[in-house]
Design brief:
The protein is an alpha+beta fold. It has 20 helices and 22 strands.
Length: 662
Amino acid sequence: MNLKSDSSIQSIIDGIADPIIVIDPKDHRVLWSNEAAKASAGCEIGERPTCHWLSHCRDKPCHESGEDCPLPAVVQTRKSVRTTHIHRGENNRPIHVDILASPIVNEAGEVTQIVEIIRDITEMEMARKELASSKRGLEQQIRAATAHLTEVNRKLREENSERKLAENALKHSEERYRTLFESLIDAAFLVDAHEGRILDVNRQAMHLTGRSKQELVGTAMRDLHAASPSTFDRLFGEPHAGQMIEGDDVIQGATGEVPVEMRSVFFDTHEDTLGLFIYHDASELRASEQARATLESQLEQAAKLEAIGRLAGGIAHDFNNMLAVILGTIQEQRRFHHLTAAESFEHIERAAKQAAILTKQLLAFGRRTVLKPQVIDLNTVVKEVDEMLRRIIGGGIKLDFEYGELDAIYADPSQLAQVVVNLAINAKDAINTSGHIVISTFRCTVCEPGGLEAREGGEYMVLRVQDNGVGMSETVRSRIFEPFFTTKEEGKGTGLGLAMAYGIVKQSGGFIDVRSVEGEGTQIDIYLPSAEVHEPDVHTEKLTATILLLDDEDLVRNLNGRLLEFEGHKVIQAANIETARGIIRKSSEHIDLLLTDVLLPGMRGDDFAQEVTAQHPNLKVLCISANPGSLEDSNRTVAWPFLAKPFKAEQLLAKVAEVLRQ
């Protein structure tokens, strides 16, 4: 490698701010260096200096000076090696550098040259150490400074006649304030509390905002909060002496908007009221909080998968039974004709409905997205997970259900089902070998006061899960809703089940009461407020339309086509996207509705709908799918009407009529 032979490459590398040197791996002498490396040497480098002389003016190699030399490792591994050194600058000032040493290998696989890129990380290293060492003492320093300034102010008022003594005390106070003010690792602003203008700033304030002291002094403190001035006004609207305020906000920083944690204290001087504002850059904290939220979401899904794993065997068994009913009925009808057609269809329909309910439960329980709440019946939600819970609980534990007369509630049915499952799993795990679990529902107007959270008055529908397991101590009971808290053995629980249940109930406007006695069992009551129910509008007129039916499953498409034609609609069928696209392009008839499956080969049905409606904006769309989560996996911004498979004939016809009326 000969950089001197190519002036354009040399000019480019000379323009790089970081020092770059090319080293002979045999004698560690420098073959070439850019201008930044020569400028940073700090001494006469001579001809072919050693790398340790050029980079930090040392006569001895790195390892003899207590540094880790990366060159032997590069030669041995023929890979890049990164390390850090402490060089010495003017007046023996330590300079922390990051060194990346990379090999240049010839055709024989030998390392002929090594390229070192050296970056000064002193400011980053010093900032990291200062941040780690000073944050704990920051609040104590602020309180000490506040107490001191308040005391000085009081003395100044009381000892006004002793002017010389007061002046000396004030001078001493100002010196201490300046020392403290400049030593703070966070940004500090001294502000006139009445006018709201900045009087003084420390170095960190200039660094955080990217402005000089001259630019900041005289500026309105509120202007730093240009992105959210209302937040600043709410926190600091009417300050008074002795007031301490904390809050979070976003300010305009050197590189854009910066999240900050704010602390401020107001105090009187002999002339005015001042405010000391301390702003801590919370960028790293917010990033870690986002990472934690992501992890919690992943663990929440893991908790669902844990429960689904318990269901796998039971589901396979039940599906085989349902398929046996369907196939056996068909074979019996073909061979023996023992059953009437109506009886055969009744058996097949009953088995198919049971299979549909089972898949609906599993998909709803396992979906990841937050669903929309709706007016539902609590008893219906519990009954739909009845069979699922019996598979989870298994033998040895008696499971009973008791249903009361209830009003409707407003909640997410799949999330509420998840609450029931989580509580049932916890009850099962609290029972060693044999026991009893009772799941009941009832109405409650005036609830018992013991142990309940603060709540609004009104009518509540209650879900109770009661077991006679091991129970809980008061210490455990007080922590059961904390995320990741669990008393189960490692690998048998995530500690998220009850935390998820608590969040779901809270979002639904309800609350939870837990009562437990060690050795006797636990009772958990979920209180959900009743909802107002409005009768839906009834449409008596019958609509007919021309419908383009797009589905790649022939049996499903033909069946749905016949149902729609019996209702009076004209149906044009398409088995794939290209056929549907050709029908829309060439058909002389006006198509009123596109009825499409979501998951199609080559292109999603909802994406095709978006393509077509861009050219035909009056075309109505209805999406259908066997996977209710399929639309949620899409990146589209258009929300098409949706119907989940399997559905009854009347459900399909009603949904088509609803879409046509829109």
